[in-house]
Amino acid sequence: MITAKKDIGTGARSPSASCQGDKCPWHGTLKVRGRLFEGTIVSTRGLDTVVVTWNYYKYIPKYERYERRKTRISAHNPKCMQTKLGDVVRIGECRPISKTKKFVVFEKIGVS
What we know:
Elements: E1 36-43, E2 49-60, E3 65-76, E4 87-93, E5 103-111
Antiparallel strand pairs: 1-2, 1-4, 2-3, 4-5
């Protein structure tokens, strides 16, 4: 049963492919709510899982300098997104899908 694409409320473009997954925000019942992030895919080893990372700077008042930090988050990767290593994607918070996955890829922005 193929369901129609829907608006998930983030202003994202819907993927051109379709999937049968229930854990897809576009074709299934998974809702995107909470925090939204943008990062680069650095690992695709897990089944339907990607690791997304991004860098940022944190100010250290004692030394009056900035330090580099990075964040790595495991996210669910629906089949219709067709992402691969090095792609820049947007992820959104959703209900817990597994022990470590609480985010889902909902938009592919480009290649870094």
